[in-house]
Amino acid sequence: MPDTAQRFTVTSPDLRDGDPLPADHWADAFDCTGGNRRVRLAWGGAPQATRGYAITMFDPDAPTGAGFWHWLVWDVPAGHTSLDAALPAGAVDGTNDLGTVGYLGPCPPVGDRLHRYEITVYALDVPTLGLPASTPPTIAAFTMSCHILGYARITGTVRR
């Protein structure tokens, strides 16, 4: 995150910051049977120069040595300040660390420590990153990092 990035606010009708993620947002993969429903978001106060947004969900506590990208969306038009069931026209649902496109809810290992799921909305200085949905998450995150004007974050937790 650039030192110059301004903070703005994000809220969710599905989650209060720091609370456990409800089971309907958990994965329906591995040995979890959640609803795999992405978290709805609303944000405000982004920098005036914002030309587009990106949204990510990252688990820094995943036992991979590098965390785990659960969700990446980019090319959200600057005129949008919320994300519900459907992505706005032009937005790209990116590839997660499982290698599938779209949202992948949490499913931490049984008995592992508490996992934090950082959902971040990034205000970007470009309307598009010019990346296909198949872009690996680390490359998408790196490309975003060059364009961040501001960010807002809400964190959910899960332990099994």
Give a brief outline of the structure.
This protein is mainly β.
Element layout with pairings:
Blueprint: E1 6-7, E2 9-11, E3 41-44, E4 52-59, E5 68-77, E6 82-83, E7 92-93, E8 115-124, H1 137-145, E9 148-158
Parallel strand pairs: 1-9
Antiparallel strand pairs: 2-3, 3-6, 4-5, 4-8, 5-7, 8-9
Molecular structure report:
This protein has one helix at residues 137-145, and strands at residues 6-7, 9-11, 41-44, 52-59, 68-77, 82-83, 92-93, 115-124, 148-158. The chain is mainly β and 160 residues long. The chain has one domain (6-158): PEBP-like (Phosphatidylethanolamine-binding Protein, Alpha-Beta Complex), CATH 3.90.280.10. A hairpin with an 8-residue loop joins strand 4 (52-59) and strand 5. It is globular and about 45 Å long.
